[in-house]
Amino acid sequence: MKRSRSLKLAFMGASALALTACDQPQDIAIFESVEQCSQQDGFDSDSCQRNMDLAREEHISVAPKYSAIEDCEADFGAASCEVAPVQTQSGGSVFMPLMMGYMMGNMLSGNSRVATQPLYRSKDDPSNFRTADNQKVAGKTGLSTVPGKVAKAPTVKTSTLSRGGFGASAPSLRSFGG
Amino acid sequence: MERISIEERDDWRAQAEEVGFDFHTFDGEPYWDETACYRFSLAQIENDIEDPSEEIENLCFEVVDRAINDSEVMARLAIPETFWDYIRNSWLNREKNLYGRLDFSYDGKGPAKLLEYNADTPTALYESAVFQWLWLEQAMEREIIPAGCDQFNSLHEALVDAFKAADIEGPFHLASCQGSPEDEGTVRYLEECARQAGLNTKFLYIEDIGISPEGHFTDLDDMGIATLFKLYPWEWIMSDEFGKSVPESGLRFIEPGWKAILSNKGLMPLLWEMFEGHPNLLPSFFEDDPRISRLGDLSMVPGLAAGYVKKPLFSREGSNVQIIRPGQRPVSVEGPYGREGAIIQALHPLPIFEGNHTVIGSWLIASKPCGIGIREDNSPITKDSSRFLPHVIY
């Protein structure tokens, strides 16, 4: 047979089905420092340090980036931003919020589904820790339980300097495919 | 190969609209046309279309191999020099391709002749993969065609498999231009295939793509775009304002940069130069090739005596194509293309079935032939308004 055996009827422009699999609550822990982590029952200082290092590394790539410090402070508050160790294409500075803490799995429940990552506090909701994807985590340090989607690895978020740089070459035709 | 007039399914328009295939009629003229179908033998499909398609794809890879190391070839293809290294690396890194469509002139006898390769932004995919398949199943069920018919069309399965094998991590972005329902339909269908392969997808318009301070491309949520399917030709990407940021952006494009070599009409003279006399190729030359320009009269060129076709390097949907036959007025289609030069290809007129000029589009998914789509036009040049007809193997 030279044709598809079956064809789950493919719709054009079908609306997105939200994939909610794996969104089970996860046990996590939040700390502002390695010392604070080491004092938590069942957490050893080696693991605390290793996870802090991981979160610091992630911080550089996943923290929201801004080309003006004013824009960063508008989102995260005065004196809450730092210069990122990257540059714009034209050599200008890039800014990102300070890392205010980190999230890791709860070592007591042996939870491996939690992606260790940096946490931030935004200007409009300073009492809560938030992920780089702007998901609310918790208002206190120590152990918590959060929805699965909050504990997943953050996407690399950036900021946009300009849009519309693609598309200018298209003549106005019904279709230019072919 | 024959054209058979058949009964339409009385409810096909309603079905088309239900699945979002809403460009089935254009300016009151049918685009999807099931008042007839084309019948092929299995041998015609396998020996005359499928095998040559695979073989030509391999010849094309030899052209890419040559072009990336030959600045003269890259210049003849009008590819900006700033992209030569980028395109070269995309090939050397074996960046994966998804799809393409080879267009053949074929009448059921003799070798199919390659007219061009839509290697970068082919459309008419949904109607080939899905609506044609659905027609076959229902036409057999309703006894419009005999039971036991087959169709050269495993496109949908091949697309889903290709996405599974594409090594795409994180969200997969897909983009088309605003204001073209047909192109958006093609991209929405590919998005559906990617979802069926388990990918997490995000659609946006080409015009909405942004750039971050570090030179990464972004979507409307300011998320970095890691992998982008774009129904937008490479030559336009390269000439757009954001084009200069492409080589350093780290973005993986589907189709990859090396497809810029194959989607160019200059592929045809390059193939002829390297594989002259191949049964599926037509004599083709760059317009400014001294071998033909110094003759003055193109009908003196071997292979062009019966007429020739002039096509701009970047023409699409038949625009700016001109057919010249000795002693006849040229036939041409107006359009916006042609500044970058043109090619001359020996005329191999499309076969005529009951007054219709018929072209066969042979689909390659991840470089494997896996289906065809047939277009008919009242004129010898296939355009975006040409009708799409289904086919059977019987």
TrEMBL record, chain A:
Keywords: Signal
Keyword field contains Ubl conjugation: no
Keyword check for Signal: yes
InterPro entries assigned: Biofilm_formation_YgiB
PROSITE patterns: PROKAR_LIPOPROTEIN
Pfam families referenced in this protein's UniProt entry, alphabetically: DUF1190
Lineage: superkingdom: Bacteria
Region (Disordered): 118-154
Cleavable signal peptide: 1-20
Name of the protein in its database record: DUF1190 domain-containing protein
Lineage, opening ranks: Bacteria, Pseudomonadati, Pseudomonadota, Alphaproteobacteria, Rhodospirillales
Automatic annotation (TrEMBL), chain B:
Source species: Kiloniella laminariae
Protein name: Glutathionylspermidine synthase family protein
UniProt lineage: Bacteria, Pseudomonadati, Pseudomonadota, Alphaproteobacteria, Rhodospirillales
SUPFAM superfamilies xref list: Glutathione synthetase ATP-binding domain-like (SSF56059), PreATP-grasp domain (SSF52440)
Tagged with keyword ATP-binding: yes
Gene3D superfamilies the record matches: 3.30.1490.330
Keywords associated with the record: ATP-binding, Ligase, Magnesium, Metal-binding, Nucleotide-binding
InterPro entries with a match to the protein in the record: GSPS_pre-ATP-grasp-like_dom, PreATP-grasp_dom_sf
Occurrences of domain Glutathionylspermidine synthase pre-ATP-grasp-like (ranges): 12-393
